[in-house]
Amino acid sequence: MSLTIYQSSVPVFIRALNQLKAILAKGAANAATRKIDESTFMQGRLAPDMFPLPAQVQIATDMARGGAARLTGVEPPKFEDDEKSFADLIARVDKTVEYMKSLPEAAFEGGDTRTITRPVRGQPKQFTGRNYLQQFIIPNLYFHTTAAYLILRHNGVDIGKADFIGPLD
Q: What is the C-alpha separation between 110 and 129, in angstroms, rounded?
């Protein structure tokens, strides 16, 4: 039996975001223990031309929320990008997961062949739902969750590969 577009997307997105949430919680705890102002972490980035931690989380949640919505044929709700603390970022992850859980699995039927047009590098790009998921959403989701993980790790948060991957079922 092959995987459905729902099985290949929403559970994968939720797992990645739950691990991101756990990593952010460890970042908050680390800041409190070391008595470091959270703004230090919020400004963290890996290179001068990369986005800081909040933007990495915002983009990861946008990818998951937007990907899930568009695979069902609807536009996703917009979230303001105004997070300034670990608590704000964790709340954004929670809000994203709750939104995805609200999408009925049946709404994804036909999503693999649905035409989805999104801007890529400033130009409209047409995808099938399957290609959108595999070539755009999943790589972007993991890129930005990895960047968030690496920013925290670089700033001394005691996290490792197991924190990123999470428990195995």
A: 8
Closest by alpha carbon to 145, among 61, 81, 33? 61
d(C-alpha 119, C-alpha 162), whole Å: 34
Domains of the chain: which residue ranges?
A: 10-165
CB distance 6 to 69 below 8 Å: no
Please give the C-alpha separations between residue 28 and each of 33, 86, 112, in angstroms, as whole numbers.
9, 6, 38
| pLDDT confidence bin for 114, thresholds 50/70/90 | very high
Q: In this structure, how many other beta carbons lie within 10 angstroms of the beta carbon of residue 90?
A: 19
User: Do the strands 123-128 and 115-120 form a parallel or antiparallel pair, or are they unpaired?
Assistant: antiparallel
CATH superfamily of 10-165: dinb family like domain (1.20.120.450)
pLDDT at position 68 over 80 = yes
Q: Which residues contact 63 (CB under 8 A, 6 or more apart)?
A: 137, 140, 141, 144
Instruction: Specify the pTM.
Output: 0.96
